[in-house]
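Progress report, Aim 2. The chain analyzed during this reporting quarter is listed below.
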Amino acid sequence: MRRTGSIAGVAVAVVMGLAGCSSDTDSAADKKSSASGSPAADVEKSGDDATASPPASVADQSTAEGAVAAWVTAVIKGQPKEACLVMAEPASGSTPAKVGSEETCGDDVPERKEMDENLGRFRESFTPKPPTDDPKVEIEPAAATGDKTEIPADKITVDGQTLDAIVLSHSTGLEADQLDINVESSKIEDSWYVTNLDFNIG
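Predicted C-alpha cells for the chain:
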C-alpha cells in the first residue's frame, strides 16, 4: 500500500505490507493474511496442487465485491482479525499465493501490533459522520480481468456515502481530484480476497 499526503492527521508517504499482515521472515510470523486458511496452519495455494481448506472467515468471498465489503466493514468496526482474514498475498512468479489462518491472524501474532496500528489509521479515515455501530457497506459491481479486479473508492458506499467522500471529509487541504483510492481484489482458488490498497494523494 502506498500513501502520500495527509489524511486524518496521519503523515503519509509510507510504503507498507498489506496492513501489517505480511512479512518475509522465516518464522511463523511470515505467513500472509487472508480469509481461507485452516485454523491449525497456514496454507500455500498454487496451481492445481493447491488444497482447499475450510474458510476461517464468515465473509462472503464468492465475489470480489463481497470480499471488499467485508474488509471495509471490518476496518470501520475496528476488527483487525476479521479484516486480516479477508486479505491475501497473490502468487508472484514462482512464489505461490499465501493465505492466512486463525493462527496467523490471531491476537498473539508478532505482526499484530503493526497490523492494528495500520488498520486503526484506515478506520478513522473510512468511518462516516455520524458513525454507526453497524455500517452498511455496498459495492457497485466491478468488471474483473481474469482473477483480479480493482474497485475505486467512489464505487464503495458506507451508510450511503461514497468512501472517497468519507476519506476527503477527514482530510486537510485536499480536493476531490487529488484523491485516488482503489481496492484490489484477487481470486485465489475459489475465493476472493483483498490483495492491495492503492491509496494515493497528490
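The longest helix spans residues 112-126. The chain has a mean pLDDT of 75. These observations will guide the mutagenesis work planned for the next reporting period.
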